[in-house]
Structures are given as structure tokens and as C-alpha cells.
Amino acid sequence: MRNSGDLIAGAELTPARLAERFSVEIRPDRQRVLVVPHGELDLGTVDEVAIEVDELVARGFHAIVIDLRATSFIDSTGVRFLIRETGREDAYVTVIDGPKAVSRVFDLADMRHILPFETAR
User: Fold this and answer.
1) Closest by Cα among 63, 58, 51 to 27
2) What pLDDT shows up at residue 50?
3) Which of 9, 33, 37, 83 is deepest in the core (most CB within 10 A)?
């Protein structure tokens, strides 16, 4: 798992410190690989996930699942990222829905018919 950094005990919780809690876990799963963002998927972190997906595709993975179950928040940048990634022609990218706060964004934005969601195994 890649971490943007660890919090130092007693350090002030600034927006920069909160973003440091973000990490991306890569989990092979038979014929596919899961990309699991931990924390907030937003303007400050989406590039980190994009780099991981691009590296996986470059290494020859063709089935990638972006698993949002460990994602605590998603903004419009995260939604645009998912639309872009699931529309790739060089890989088949699907999404596992996240917790209520994340799932609700897809409902409010009426994205369920656009993004290829799958159920967790």
C-alpha cells in the first residue's frame, strides 16, 4: 500500500495533514487487479490513483476494478476520473461502490447508468 505520509503524534490536523492519510492499495484478484483508494478521492488525491491505473495498464493488466469501499469521500474530480477511466479503450475498468457518503454522490449525480458498477466478491 502506498501512503502519502504518516501523521506525527500531536501534529495539527490541517488540510494538508488530512490529505496525507490517503493511500492506494493494489490487490491482484485472479484475472483482474483491484485498485483500492483509502481516504478521500478528490482533487488532491485523484492523480495518485490515476498513476497507479496507468502503471497497471502499462504492465499489461486489462481488467481493473476501482474498489471504493475504503473511500470516505468523493468530489466531482473523483467522479470525472471514474468516467474517464471506465471509458478507456486499452483496459476494461469497473467500479465497486463505496460507503453511503460515496454512493450517494453517484445517486445525486445520476451516474449509475454511466459507470460500470459491479458487486464485491
Assistant:
1) 63
2) 98
3) 37
CATH class of 15-118: alpha beta
Place of cell 490513483: 49
Residue pLDDT, tens place only, 58-109: 999 999 999 999 999 999 999 999 999 999 999 999 999 999 999 999 999 9
CA distance linking residue 45 with residue 78, whole number of Å: 9
Measured distance CA(73)–CA(77) in Å, rounded: 11
Q: What is the dihedral of CA 22, 40, 69, 24, to 10 degrees?
A: -30
